[in-house]
Amino acid sequence: MSSFSTLRSYRLPDLHPLCPFKARFNPHHAAAAAASKEWVLSFNALKGKKLEFFKEGGSELLCAWAYPYAGLEQLRTACDFVNLLFTIDEISDEQNGQDALATGMSFLNTMKDDSFDDGSVLCRMTKDFKKRFFPYAGPATTRRFLKHSEDYVLGFAREAELREKNVVLDLASYDPLRRENSAVRYCFGLFGYLLNMDLPDEVFEHAVYMEMHLAAVDMVCWANDVYSYDMEQSMGHLTNNILTVLQRARGLDLQGAADAVGVHFKELADSFEANKARLPSFGQELDAIVAQHIMAMEAWVAGNLEWSFGTRRYFGKNHLKVRETLVVELSPPRVLDD
């Protein structure tokens, strides 16, 4: 599918001043990153350009920004989890819907069933992660994490199917799918483990808290989409991006769609803050837990903005220049190897 815009560059919305949360960086980054990188390399699952890209350490850097409060061991486990998702994403990114679902089911069955073993590298990686996560996650965290596992797998398989068929969803259908296939809700599912604070379902499912949760998830997803658009269009992957959805749904050009992301990001931030002010008390003990989970959501949103310009993932070697100018020059189509 060709782009809906003839523009060869676009200006990013400046999301940093629109974000009311403060970013922090985890001091355990170096040690956790080294251990996690060694862990991934031991499985020999990535090849070629994917391996070279992994070695740049983008996943571990993301975790250090997204989970600044985590202890060393917890951060290492978070890095392993995000690297596991990176491996799945790299495998499924070039698969059709049926094959992506098969990849996902190997991961999901391993996550849910201790006796499952299909002999795959993905299965071995998942089993090893489980040993360091589930024994230390509370019951509510565990239940939701397994549900997020299922939603993530179905989400990225659906994404692959839509990509194969060249289908662009409408806005009402896109947001719910993007929350899952992006793995942002899944990554939020680590909070209870990292904080050692199990958030009860009565809080997580409360209407006001859920609005906050979804607003934070959407802030990450919309930011990621506006930042990653050039990388994705250069690979011909245009269907799973909010800029494409907005161009189609609202008749916008590329710059208009990017501007709309900035407007909506501000709306989401305002909604989060308003709901934070009206969230009811759940009692002194629970309120302390809720406050930490809210902090964790805020840290993810703010940290994601920092990470997006601190890595070459989205903007290549020009990432620092793009942060300064906010101008993204669209790249020509590129040929992918393994």
UniProtKB/TrEMBL annotation:
InterPro entries: Isoprenoid_synthase_dom_sf, Terpene_cyclase-like_2. GO terms for biological process: isoprenoid biosynthetic process. Keywords: Lyase, Magnesium, Metal-binding. It is an enzyme of class 4 (lyase). SUPFAM superfamilies: Terpenoid synthases (SSF48576). Its cofactor is Mg(2+). Its EC number is 4.2.3.-. It comes from the Eukaryota. GO terms for molecular function: metal ion binding; terpene synthase activity. The keyword Magnesium applies. Transmembrane segments: none annotated. Belongs to the terpene synthase family. PANTHER family: BETA-PINACENE SYNTHASE-RELATED (PTHR35201:SF4), TERPENE SYNTHASE (PTHR35201). This is Terpene synthase. It comes from Phanerochaete sordida. The lineage of its organism: Eukaryota, Fungi, Dikarya, Basidiomycota, Agaricomycotina.
